[in-house]
Amino acid sequence: MAEAEVRCVDFWCNEFGMRVRIALREKNVEFEFVEEDLRVRQRSELVLRMNPVYRSIPILIHRGRPICESMNIVEYVDEVWSQPGGTRLLPADPLERAHARFWANFVDQKVFDAQHRFFMGRNEAKETAKAELVGHLKRLEEVLGDKAFFGGDEFGLLDVALVPFSSMFYGYEKHGGVDMEVECPVLARWVRRCHERESVRSVLPTGVNMYEIHKFFYGIE
User: Fold this and answer.
1) pLDDT value for 7
2) Model pTM greater than 0.70?
3) Confidence of residue 2 (pLDDT cuts 50, 70, 90)
4) Residue 183 region by backbone torsions, left for phi larger than 0, else alpha for psi between -120 and 50, else beta
5) Is the pLDDT of residue 186 over 80?
6) Residues 8, 14, 17: CA angle, nearest 5 degrees
7) What is the pLDDT of residue 83?
8) What are the CA-CA distances from residue 156 to residues 57, 74, 83, 106, 196 (Å)?
9) How much is the average pLDDT of 196-216?
């Protein structure tokens, strides 16, 4: 059987890989989902061959050639499958593109780091990480402001970067009592708008399923 032209190597609960799958669906790109089970410590031969540097997922394989790192892949998808008048994830204005990339990096460097320490930490370390995490999300609320999406009226790059993390909001409440409707109501409304999109609904798992598997990853009883 011939390989699909576009393959996405990922695991269903990987927030970084969700970005890629959302982007592909936004651009109406047909792709084959190749599951790489992150519960297994040893990476597959395919991952080792396609991403020998980091040995990580997601990986987009386009016509046999790999593209690695989630936001790098999202930008590749946006550029390769662009049509005049069609959906664009990156802003047209260079300054707005730079801002979107800056805040996407903020999600990777600040939000994910605080989330990881929140679930890994115990006692004071957990509370410190929780306060940092909520603070980072409140800062993103300020960036969003009263706009429908981070780029304005159109769903775009920063929305793709952040919305997978909303699948952990349920876990925030269960693990540390963080009620996002109270702490970050603007982001909570934005999440509901994002879920109106088929690309998001079809990719994001339920909060319950995300929390259950992350309890396994983080060793939470």
Assistant:
1) 98
2) yes
3) low
4) alpha
5) yes
6) 35
7) 86
8) 22, 10, 15, 16, 14
9) 98
